[in-house]
Amino acid sequence: MAEDLALIASGHFSAKIGIPWEVSKFAELALHLDHPFLSGGAGADMRDKLDAVFNILTLGPSRIKKSREELLQKLRRRKEELRAEQQQVYSHMHEDVRRIMGSKATLLIEELAREVGYQDEGLASELREGFHIIGILSDCREFPHEQVDPTMEVEGLRTVSKWAQHAVVGQLRKNQKLASHIMEKCKSEAGQAGTLKGPFTREEVTAILGPHWVPIPRFGLEQGAKIRMIDDASLYLQNATVGRSFKLTLGGLDQLLAIAKVWLSAVTEDRKVRIRYPDGSWREGVLHEEWSIDQARKLLGRLLDLADAYKQLASRPEEAYAAVVAAFDEEVGEVRFFIARTLLFGETAAVYGFNRVARLLEKIAVRLANLVCTNYFDDYAQLEAEELAASAEECMKELFKLLGFRLAETESKDKPFSEVFDPLGVRVDLTESTRGVVKVAPKPSRVEKVLEEVRGALSQGSMRGYEASGLAQKIRFLRETHFGRCGARVLNGLADHSKAAGAVSVLAPRLKKGMEWLVSYLPAAPARQLRAWSNESPVLIFTDGANEPEAVTVGAVLLERGAPPEYFGEKVPDELVSAWRQAGGFQVIGQAELLPVQISARVWSARLAGRFSIW
User: Residue 481's CB: how many other CB atoms inside 10 A?
Assistant: First the structure.
């Protein structure tokens, strides 16, 4: 209270006051909401992608192919014209930055950023000088504003440095899981790849960087047959020094499906092209004569993946003291250190620095080449009409390579366009796209891995706490991308079980029952269907429950454009309330909030079938 009064007295504060809407005005505004699948986000990036769809449909395949070929020819010529000047830029780079960025066409990237109007004033200098990994990050106005201040000043790292150098040795000695693999990976990165320098002893690092360097312990995260390296920049507070003025909004699955829906619904039977933008505006044209209606709707997809994404961008050499990777070397029985030349997976700043570049690459591809893609970190999911698939794949790959970015080219990563593809951990099925249907389901391999873990735990009747935590993450992903809110009971049970940490604990009856349900449900869960020609106005349902001394009550209201509202309100029977309280205590507000959701789904099932809804 005293702090609040002092703040008010200073006059340096802001206050936000919420004024409730009138009921009728609130309902009017709510009825104009779009479902996320219909809008895909209201940013300029979505408008660019819908413009690309419009151009493909109205300009025709021949002109699109030619424009992409001409763009690549233009970029090759310009890259050659800039060769001498680019060499001058390389020569002025710090040697560690040049080791990483010497393959990047930074001048061409800067020119293209200006051409597409990329709003990031600090990007050019960071491409040349390395990206900041601590402190206040450069602003990027391509993303929405969000002010997040650091919780610690950069100077605070000097205070913790000596303690951290000592503490990391004890930590890594205690936790030697995957130590040999981690050390092998570190040495590999310090070898031909050159993303790390080392290995060094503590004294050698001090001789290079001075006494106030701060380590980053590296650990391995097992992901099936793969082990991902995580550099924990939170433990010794490097991440606490990071402040930013923007938040990341990435395309992801929702935007990809929104684009597919718009594309399929844009082409009408009378060969008109009508595209509705997130702001409510429309763009209209005529389907080009080279397209048949079915050809225009025959969609394919593929995924382009950057190789070692973060390690393709250099970090700031003067901040290397805050990026000293630590790993245990079993051969000598000591902790060894490596100085990072690049962004690291585990640094907060790396997430923001990398995505500034990733968004620029997406914008160049979409605006200049009419390539329909959405990026999510280092993954670029592409959609294309079958007739243009070869053109889109060749152009996207060549564009990235011209700019100096390495692509994942293994057989499992570099797959051609297909009716069925697996972006972002899910399976998108476009086999019925000519009928306006897109299906979404989990990747079968993900489902099988979850089922294998669940069956194993059920057969043993127990599991370790950290195993429960890991399983919960996998189930949560399936839940969010496929079967919605189902599975909450399993997740709650796993959360309770995870408190056992490394100890083996017997499965609670409630968790066991939930896991048995999961084993029966997951294999049978149908793919979600997105129908391009479904009614575009979502059904809105507002639910509420109350736990008052005199009664427990529930209710709901359904709103829909062009239809009168419907509602219900009821007192929950005393015998049901008594059953709730016998099972979980006197406070039953949770049950009271959930019951009207279940009632609404049953009472209005006919209204909701095949429709988008917002709850």
Answer: 21
Torsion on CA atoms 197, 201, 204, 206, rounded to nearest 10: 100
**523 has pLDDT over 90:** no
Dihedral in degrees, nearest 10, Cα atoms 384, 447, 538, 268: 30
**351-373 burial string, b = 16+ CB within 10 Å, else e?**
bbbbbbbbbbbbbbbbbbbbbbb
Q: What is the pLDDT of residue 525?
A: 82
Integer CA distances (angstroms), 446 to 58, 82, 451, 475, in order:
39, 46, 9, 9
Q: Give the separation between CA 415 and CA 399, rounded to whole angstroms.
A: 17
- The alpha helices in 436-544, defined as continuous H runs, are 444-460, 465-478, 488-497, 509-521
Residue range 35-57: average pLDDT?
79
Neighbours of 35 (CB within 10 A): 19
- The Cα 386–Cα 295 span in angstroms is 7
107 within 8 A of 324, measured Cβ to Cβ: no
Query: Strands 372-376 and 334-340: what pairing?
Result: unpaired
Q: Is the pLDDT of residue 200 over 80?
A: yes
Mean pLDDT across the chain: 91
Which tokens in the block code for residue 521? 């449900």
What amino acid occupies position 213?
Answer: W
pLDDT digits (tens, 9 = 90+) for 287-296: 999 999 999 9
Pick from 74-88, 194-208, 225-239, 371-385: least confident: 225-239
Task: Give the contacts of 154 (CB within 8 A, at least 6 positions apart).
Answer: 134, 135, 241
C-alpha 458/C-alpha 454 separation (Å) is 6
